Amino acid sequence: MFAIRYTAVLVLLVAALVGVFVWKTNTQDSYFAFKLGLDLSGGTHLVYNADTTKVPEAQIAESMSALQAVIERRVNAFGVGEPVVQTQQSGALGNGSYRLIVELPGITDVDEAVAMIGQTPLLEFKLVKPGEPQALPNGAINPAAFEDTGLTGKYLSSAALQFGNGTGVATAPTVLINFNPEGATMFADITGKNVGRELAIFLDGNLLSAPVIQDRITGGSAVVSGNFNAESAKQLATNLNLGALPVPIALASTQTIGATLGDEATRAGVFAGVLGFALLSIFMIVWYRLPGLVAVVSLFIYCLLMLALFKLIPVVLTAAGIAGFILSVGLAVDANVLIAERIKEELADGKKTNEAIREGFARAWLAIRDSNIAHIIAAVILFWFGTALIKGFALVFGLGVIISMLSAISISRTFLLALGVSAERGLGRFMMLSGWHK
After folding, report:
1. Is 310 in contact with 34 (CB distance < 8 Å)?
2. Which pLDDT score is estimated for 1?
3. Residue 412 CB coordination number (10 Å)
4. Does 68 lie in the same domain as 16?
5. Which domain holds residue 146?
6. Structural Rg of the chain based on CA atoms
7. Bridge-based pairing state of the strands 98-105 and 35-36
8. How far apart (Å, rounded) are the C-alpha atoms in residues 127 and 147?
9. Are residues 350 and 212 in the same domain?
10. CB–CB of 8/415 below 8 Å?
11. What is the pTM of this model?
12. What is the DSSP letter of 153?
């Protein structure tokens, strides 16, 4: 009995320390502050259409993955907290269009958000077809005059500002680009097979220059020249280093969630959770008496543990995530209800209090285990195949199910045994039996 009570006191002390940690770090400037998603903190939701018409079908998945990585690097460079960048395909059987979805929490200026994405350049190298005019009568670029080589900014490893073409003569600013090994091989192959032809350099669809290939170029370096000044050339080099887009994208839609709306959603979610917990606590204590009171204490400790995990992992909380948290609280309550009912059955069979508690937990454990395993499997499936919104729900829900088993089986059991209440006497019997039993 002494060991059980010592354990119970230790659990309460740990819970108190966890509670202090959650409370003291509940400030915006804290490293362990809650990370809120777009729907709670406010921000911008951007949807882009990706043009994969010129990408071989076998390389579309790879190109979209590279596009996602490029955009993530760019928004991270601007210090955006917890951005979400994902790709989606619409349509069936893999024949639909591709989209890029970007969520930027805390950024409510749409123009600023679009600029973060749009400044990333699309660099392309195309061969000029002999005999075709490079410009149409209206002055626009003639798309039929150029032949795709497949060499794009996707194959860049670095870019740097320089003056001149590398000969040491200080003239107009240019950008020296270095290809990765695959790009260097492609560049050498293109220049080797097309000596005497013009190799046009395009940036975001605009023709920068079309130098004549004098010889096969090895070493994996090229010079991008155009109507640059020092600042624009430096900016281009910076953007290329952040990542050139492997496929073109076009803004399809924008959505802005204001900070006020996010605060309202947060307050509504917190209020719903507190109100639900209060009503639940009243029911548990009135109906299940002492086991109900112990269950409420265990649930409170469970909530503290979950909040601490949200800070330590950290978990980006969304409205869906809060819903998953509240749902997991319901599962924890369900486990405690099952335990209380099992204990009541054991007491009704005439067993001593401690024996009834141990038997009740042992009999309830199998049902709790099987139910929670099913919920964990569902959470894993949702997290693996779901979108960012569904993943947030699945992660919180899965963590909640695991921690709820700990609180229901270990913490509740320890507290009930530590109290040492005897159900053989009047008050003790009234406190241990639930419902209308007296």
Report:
1. yes
2. 64
3. 27
4. no
5. 46-255
6. 32
7. unpaired
8. 5
9. no
10. yes
11. 0.63
12. G
